[in-house]
User: Which sequence fits this backbone?
């Protein structure tokens, strides 16, 4: 029996796996002492990139996402391939999805989009000093690049028009740091 915080794991079993996700079911002793199960979905680690141009406009991806059944507006995202550094993934995804190459990159941290049952660490980045070219979409992608002033993107978060968690964190973090810089406070 192993311990995971206040939980005791009696047994773990993988019930499903494909190249993108893995589902694990654990037989556990809960913190209250009762037996139960706890399911965990593991999604391969990923990145999310928000690109900011010289005019303080963000370059976002508008794309239909099968899982949520609707078009979303979000930063460029993708899974980190085995042996690939997260920043290299971010560079690759930005170039492939929006046709953008950035000369300046800032790591904005790591977010866990949903911590109760999903393991999906996502490294977020700000890309600046942009050069625009042609995207190289995969067969599953139909992506449109959308240019929005940073302030409007922040408003769209509050209106639930931008709902992708890592994108929201990246945009808000960028906004906070830009405002702190304007007010002469350095980094937030």
Assistant:
């Amino acid at each position: 029996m192993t311990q995971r915080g206040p939980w005791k794991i009696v047994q773990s079993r993988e019930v499903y796996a494909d190249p993108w996700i893995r589902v694990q079911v654990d037989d556990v002793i809960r913190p209250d002492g009762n037996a139960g199960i706890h399911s965990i979905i593991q999604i391969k680690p990923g990145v999310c990139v928000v690109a900011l141009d010289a005019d303080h406009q963000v370059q976002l991806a508008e794309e239909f996402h099968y899982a949520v059944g609707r078009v979303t507006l979000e930063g460029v995202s993708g899974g980190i391939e085995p042996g690939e550094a997260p920043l290299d993934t971010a560079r690759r995804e930005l170039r492939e999805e929006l046709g953008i190459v950035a000369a300046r990159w800032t790591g904005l941290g790591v977010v866990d989009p949903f911590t109760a049952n999903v393991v999906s660490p996502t490294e977020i980045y700000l890309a600046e000093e942009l050069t625009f070219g042609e995207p190289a979409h995969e067969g599953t992608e139909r992506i449109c690049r959308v240019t929005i002033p940073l302030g409007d993107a922040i408003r769209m978060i509050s209106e639930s028009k931008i709902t992708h968690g890592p994108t929201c964190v990246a945009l808000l973090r960028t906004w906070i740091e830009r405002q702190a810089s304007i007010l002469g406070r350095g980094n937030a």
Q: What stands out?
A: The chain has a mean pLDDT of 94. The longest strand covers residues 100-111. The two ends are 43 Å apart (CA to CA). The helical segments are 86-98, 150-158, 165-182.
